[in-house]
């Protein structure tokens, strides 16, 4: 797998615990700055219009669309029927090189502990244009949403990164409805 370190919310080899207080949502890894310089750092050497930066589709999407992929490290356990919903959020530059209000771009939907097994890919999506259409994001983050009064007693995220294309054998889960004799 080829990946860009600047497009890794959680770098490879770094597990992040998702154990927290009851109902506490957890940011997964780092905030990605699409300018590559980091939150709070003013960009330099912008060619052309120097107003507040923002990409119309968050990054170039060509013939081969990049994919966001999030995977579990240690399996999740809970005593309170907790679920985890992974959310991709985007924010524009507020004019001071800080994120403005975070907007939801996509979510995984609630995942139960039974679905959050070790080494499982739990969130995969092709790179999406931002929503609303007027949002020109500079910053991206992943957020683990855990409902109120519930928590996990174990569980880690092993990786959260952008890959150039889907690089797994996705057809291995296809229905096997034939017999060769």
Describe this structure in words.
This protein has 181 residues and is mostly beta strands. The chain has a domain at 5-36 and 64-156: Jelly Rolls (Sandwich). Helix content is 0%, strand content 31%. The chain is built from no helices and ten strands. Strands 1, 2, 4, 8 and 10 form a five-stranded antiparallel sheet that branches. Strands 3, 5, 6, 7 and 9 form a five-stranded antiparallel sheet that branches. It is globular. The N and C termini lie far apart (37 Å).
Q: TL;DR of this structure?
A:
This protein has 181 residues and is mainly β. Helices cover 0% and strands 31% of the residues. The radius of gyration is 18 Å and the shape is globular.
Task: Provide tags for this entry.
mainly beta; five-stranded antiparallel β-sheet; 0% helix; 10 strands; Jelly Rolls; 181 residues
Query: What is the count of DSSP helices, taking H or I runs of 4+ residues?
Result: 0
Query: Secondary-structure element sequence?
Result: EEEEEEEEEE
Secondary structure class reads: mainly beta
How many strand elements?
Answer: 10
Strand content range: 25-35%
Helix content estimate: under 10%
CATH class of the domain at 5-36 and 64-156: Mainly Beta
Mean pLDDT: 82
CATH arch. level architecture of the domain at 5-36 and 64-156: Sandwich
The radius of gyration over CA amounts to 18 Å
Give the biggest sheet.
Answer: 5 strands, antiparallel
- Alpha carbon gap, first and last residue: 37 Å
